[in-house]
Amino acid sequence: MRLIGLIGGMSWESSQQYYRVINEVAAQRLGGLSSARLVLYSLDFSEVELAQRQGDWDGVTAILVEAGKALKLAGADFLVLCTNTMHKVSGALCEQVGLPLLDIIEVIGRAIVASRLQRVGLLGTRLTMEDPFYAGRLRDSCGVEVLVPGPEERDEINRIIYQELCRGSVESSSRRTVVQIINGLVEAGAQGVVLGCTELPLLVGPRDVHVPLFDTSRLHAEAAVDMALSDGSAG
Prior knowledge:
CATH architecture of the largest domain: 3-Layer(aba) Sandwich
Largest sheet: 4 strands, parallel
Helix content: 40-55%
Strand content: 5-15%
Low-confidence stretches: none
Mean pLDDT: 94
Shape: globular
Structural class: alpha/beta
Order of helices and strands: EHEHHEHHEHHEHHEEH
CATH class of the largest domain: Alpha Beta
Distance between the termini: 14 Å
């Protein structure tokens, strides 16, 4: 099994989900007392959030590259960036570190294609919902229409992510709000919804809605095990 290099995501709240799922799936695939070979670099998210808020994406890239290079020195065979939003700079991260990256948008794109859906909703941070780096790539790779909530709803989802979920607070009132937003996207024609923030699955799940949910953290973590168990020839 190749060594997975994890770069902790939006918060440690979601990063621990990656660690758990990767090890659970590795144990299922390999049997016995098996667990995953991985190295985790946990970021100080306050530094990342400040750079994001200031629009300093060169600064965000520098933080991620430092983590990636440390993981490379630790022997990682490839990188897993445990966040959707920071995939905005995934190309620069790969180029400057010199390791393959398991791209979360590609993983979700494959899942959408396999589901044969033609129109999906997208929830996430304000940047993920508004910047073309995410929805644009999904449209191009999947040939599907991507719907996002209105401006006020985007603001509220962003608040829930940063002020609650990233701080370990899971509020039932916020769950109701997000479910209502999802239902609005379904009424607008969404056949499924991408939880495009790795914290959102902490708040809502399949039992809360009546359409398929694409849990980006779980799908990404499962794909990390697939990649670790491959021979690496596809790089």
